Amino acid sequence: MKRGAPIALLVWVALVAWVVTTSMACTESPPVDPVPPGVDAGRDARADATSTPREPPSCEEVVGRPIVRRLTSTQLDNILADLFASPDVPRADVLVDPVVRGYDVDANAAVIRDLGADRWMRAAEAVAAWAIPDHLDAITPCTDVGAVCQLAFVRQLGMRLYRRPLDADKVNVYVEMLIDEADFESGARTVLAAMLQSPGFLYRVEIGEPVAEGEPLVELGPFEVASALSFFLTNSAPDAELLAAAGEGRLVTDEDLDREFDRLLATPRARSALGHFARQWLLVDGLEGQVKDP
Predict the structure, then answer these.
(1) Residue 35 pLDDT
(2) Span 26-55, average pLDDT
(3) In angstroms, rounded to a whole number, what is the distance separating the alpha carbons of residues 167 and 171?
(4) CB-based contacts of 112, cutoff 8 Å, min separation 6
(5) What is the 3-state secondary structure (H, E, C) of the chain?
(6) Quick one: which of 96, 92, 91 has its CA closest to 111?
(7) Are residues 78 and 193 in the same domain?
(8) Could you tell me if 141 and 242 lie in one domain?
(9) Does residue 217 share a domain with residue 170?
């Protein structure tokens, strides 16, 4: 075993425990007190990490409500780099990721306001201009304006960016955008920029459906499971293989999930995601730029 592997394993176990306890939080649990002005939130977090663990609240079979989360800048960069199989995609770090108690994934703090929307519009257009025509083949081999090619492009791109199949109405809207332009490349560029600005792309929609009428528990659909699993392990959207498994009913059993868990965990993206979490957990993100206190 390589040196450092036990530490990495401990960090990963802590990550799993954190996600499980967070996702199973009770709806009736008391809210976390905000950090008062002037108080060092990092100091409080360090104290919490070394103090005696507190007893978890009694859930009484009531779990936390589903939350729609905005993608972080890191996740946006990862998704685009994975989609085009290139590290040279224009950076998508124009949105601010508020850090709350050390982490940049707080669903309540990460919102898009007017200024952020304008910045992201410009970033989306820059990505589209970079991607098409030079990297169009990463999305589809089609290059003509025929109906078959139009549908293939919209559906394939929509699946990767929305993390689920597009419904018929959305497909029609994007096809109309495409054919309104002078040529296929111009239309594809317009569609890509539009999809990148869509709430269906910018927000993780993993809210499920109630398991029974009047019950608080919900069951995630296969594409929601794929999204949750992928962002948890790789901090990026599901790859083509995971999306195919979701579409073919191969994300149902424990064995299915174990197979995809092991596959994703072996990817370089998972290693990067683990490091990203560990830096925030240990409050050392940005440590290189700090001035040493003598």
Answers:
(1) 42
(2) 47
(3) 6
(4) 70, 95, 120, 202
(5) CCCCHHHHHHHHHHHHHHHHHHHCCCCCCCCCCCCCCCCCHHHHHHHHHHCCCCCCCCCCCCCCCCCCEECCHHHHHHHHHHHHCCCCCCCCCCCCCCCECCECCCCCCCCCCHHHHHHHHHHHHHHHHHHCCCCHHHCCCCCCCCHHHHHHHHHHHHHHHHCCCCCHHHHHHHHHHHHHCCCHHHHHHHHHHHHHCCHHHHEECCCCEECCCCCCCEECCHHHHHHHHHHHHHCCCCCHHHHHHHHCCCCCCHHHHHHHHHHHHCCHHHHHHHHHHHHHHCCCCCHHHCCCCC
(6) 96
(7) yes
(8) no
(9) no
Q: Which two three-digit tokens encode residue 70? A: 């905005």
| 150 falls within a domain | yes
The tokens describing 231, both together, are 């962002």
Last residue of a domain, one of 203, 231, 254: 203
CA 80 to chain centre: 11
* Closest by Cα among 170, 72, 81, 80 to 112: 72
Angstrom distance (rounded) from CA 228 to CA 236: 10
Question: Is 209 in contact with 219 (CB distance < 8 Å)?
Answer: yes
**What tens digit of pLDDT does each residue of 173-185 get?**
999 999 999 899 9
Please indicate, yes or no, whether residues 197 and 222 belong to a single structural domain of this protein: no
- Residues 139 and 225 reside in one and the same domain: no
Model confidence pLDDT, tens digit, residues 242-266: 999 999 999 999 999 999 999 999 9
Q: Which pTM value belongs to this model?
A: 0.74
- On the CB side of 77, CA atoms within 13 Å amount to 14
Number of domains the chain is built from: 2
Residue where a domain terminates, one of 163, 183, 203: 203
Contact in structure between 128 and 192 (CB atoms under 8 Å): yes
